[in-house]
Design goal:
five-stranded parallel β-sheet, single chain, alpha/beta, UDP N-Acetylglucosamine Acyltransferase, domain 1, 4 helices, rod-shaped, six-stranded mixed β-sheet
Length: 242
């Protein structure tokens, strides 16, 4: 009964988060379903210290699905890996409930730590395609990680992270990523900075144009004064000749 309940829960999760699914039976075709099911078996072997068998099952799963989940990772209920190819979840990773990962996500270490060296992902977090979360820190619940971001430090709950390295952008209107699966319409602090610099550049160019115009006016005035001085000098010279 436990296995049947697990399948029903997976069907519900996938139908809830993937608009491409049309029938419940399609869940058996999803690499996410296969990878997580095999991870559960490998994790049991790992906790019983059957390390070789656990890793053997894990590596077979990688070849079958393109999803690498270390059997030592701790994963809560409701994990959904959309498409999934290229996803890597490290040994000491802890993932909460109702987390969504997209293709190419890495939950890895920095290579310099011992013990707990992979991230902890809170409940209801969405990590978009190609994002990398590297190191032993926590991604707070209800947060979003933008596509292609590289996160190297703690993220508070109810936050959005974008960029390389990842920058936190607080949101006033908090939405739960489990329900809001939008990977595109995220704040872009780099674009804001570039826009600000462009405005500053346009302002400086306009000020320089004004200065150049004023300089030309002054130069024209000086040229006229020089012409007057030349005429006065010529008149004085003519008077001396007479």
């Amino acid at each position: 009964m436990g296995f049947i309940k697990y399948i029903k829960d997976e069907m519900k999760i996938i139908r809830e988060r993937d608009p491409a699914i049309r029938t419940s039976i399609e869940v058996f075709l999803y690499p996410s379903f296969k990878a997580i099911l095999r991870y559960r078996l490998a994790n049991k072997l790992y906790r019983r210290k059957h390390y070789f068998l656990a890793r053997w099952l894990s590596q077979r799963t990688v070849r079958k699905t393109g999803i690498e989940i270390h059997p030592g990772a701790t994963i809560g209920k409701g994990l959904f890996i959309d498409h999934g190819n290229g996803v890597v979840i490290g040994e000491t990773t802890i993932i909460g409930d109702n987390v969504t990962l997209y293709q190419g996500v890495t939950l890895g270490g920095t290579g310099k730590e011992k013990g707990k060296r992979h991230p902890t992902i809170g409940n209801n977090v969405m990590i978009s395609a190609g994002a990398k979360v590297l190191g032993s820190f926590t991604i707070g619940e209800n947060s979003k990680i933008g596509a292609g971001s590289v996160v190297l430090s703690e993220v508070p709950a109810n936050s959005t992270v974008v960029g390389v390295p990842g920058r936190i952008v607080k949101r006033d209107n908090i939405k739960i990523p489990r329900e809001d699966m939008d990977q595109v319409h995220l704040p872009d602090p780099y674009l804001n900075d570039v826009t600000y610099l462009k405005k500053e550049n346009d302002y400086l160019k306009e000020e320089i144009r004004k200065v150049c115009k004023r300089f030309d006016e002054i130069k024209s005035t000086c040229d006229k004064l020089d012409e007057v001085d030349r005429l006065l000098a010529e008149l004085k010279r003519q008077d001396k000749i007479k």
